[in-house]
């Protein structure tokens, strides 16, 4: 049945386009001003650059030691995401498949952690991290991300595992598949839609996180991209030309990551709706 193109549809399209442009305005200011000199930004931040100064990016690359900061952010993000996915997917599957009072209490315990503000545990976390030798250490920061990333990811996996028919797992066990084999060969591939969601949410959080790395990492060699970029707004006071160029360099990998997973995101949403 063909739907008619009505005035209401036209109005909704116009509203959608206007909202899209409004959301893109901050990106315009960041990108355009990253190619300007500091004086030109102060004169008119909204104007098109008189001359594109790519030298801003060259200076930022050298001053921040950007390859090192990028590598630190990449290592922290990838290992943290891998650990969160493995831990929470297996835990959620086990809780769903072994229903009982203990599993219910354990699930409530983990999910309730989502409502606890980070600021309330910040000081005790740093004291405990110091005692355990987790501060000023990338492995220590990754372990902390494991803890903070578990509640939401476990909640998402827990709900999705319930949609997987238990008969599939029983058939695999009858064929001689072990418990780990059932999970990794049967269950985990079926969790792909929610796994993509978990990966995206945690990647955006960990890659852009500023406060936790600021508290944990003290050495300049361990700085992530957000920590390195903040130097232009502290040590280099109000260096907007350099700071905005650093922001563009920092956000570009996330944009590429999103574009790369865009197909999987759409497929994941479609699969989730069918289930």
CATH superfamily of one domain: MetI-like
Instruction: Specify the helix fraction band.
Output: over 70%
- Basic shape: globular
Largest β sheet strand count, sense and barrel closure: none
Question: Under CATH, the topology of one domain is which?
Answer: MetI-like fold
- Distance from first to last alpha carbon: 25 Å
Strand content: under 5%
Secondary-structure element series: HHHHHHHHHHHHH
**Count of alpha and pi helical runs:** 13
CATH class group of one domain: Mainly Alpha
Record field, number of beta strands: 0
Describe the protein's architecture and organization.
- With 275 residues, the protein is mostly helical.
- The chain has a domain at 64-235: MetI-like fold (Orthogonal Bundle), CATH 1.10.3720.10.
- It has 13 helices and no strands.
- It has helices at residues 7-33, 38-43, 55-63, 66-97, 101-112, 118-132, 138-161, 166-174, 179-190, 192-208, 211-216, 225-229, 240-274.
- The longest helix has 35 residues, at 240-274.
- The model has no long low-confidence stretch (mean pLDDT 85).
Secondary-structure blueprint:
Blueprint: H1 7-33, H2 38-43, H3 55-63, H4 66-97, H5 101-112, H6 118-132, H7 138-161, H8 166-174, H9 179-190, H10 192-208, H11 211-216, H12 225-229, H13 240-274
Summary tags:
single chain; 275 residues; mainly alpha; MetI-like fold; 13 helices; 76% helix
In short:
The chain is mainly α and 275 residues long.
